[in-house]
Amino acid sequence: MELIKIRLLSILLSIVIITPVAAWFLIEPVRIIAPEVLDIKCYANGLCLDNAEKYEQARKLRLDAIEYLRKDIGSFEKPPRLIFCSSWKCATKFGLGKRSAVTFATQGSAISPRAWKPYYVRHELIHQLQAQELGLIKYLLLPSWLSEGMAYSLSQDPRNPLTQPWEGYRKRFIEWHTGIDHSDTWSAIEKE
Fold first, then answer.
1. Most exposed: 66, 136, 145, 152, by fewest CB within 10 Å?
2. Residue 100 and residue 137: Cα distance in Å, rounded?
3. CA pair distance 32, 182, nearest whole angstrom
4. Considering the entire predicted model, what is its pTM?
């Protein structure tokens, strides 16, 4: 019986150790948690860059997006982490591939070289706010039309039309959003 307990404990310990390591190598967006390991410079305010010369540009994009969202959608409990990649080498480290950006719940977002635009940054920060306001489980279970539609619509993404299914998500969100009290958007989302 004691041998069985030791083996079970060994298996459990192996799983606890192997799972995060495997996630780091197999699920690139997880790397948003610790970009410093990838030679990305992070500053105290949650702003991270692969090119320190572009700090001021990234800082302004982030600050403007946070202020924009504070006025209309909500505020962050802690400064949101944004990783600005000025090179595709950096973007690849976070698994961006053809994507412009990726968000890992409340842990942060990675922005590719082509996404250094206000609406892209707002879009990703909206996803971080969704995770913050709704909690991780509810955020992960949000229907795509609500999660992505909200991000495309409220970020004021100027591309019109978006490719499908994104344009359909945006239209459905806009229809839904016009029928709710905007001062209580998060409660309305909780009910969906």
1. 136
2. 24
3. 31
4. 0.86
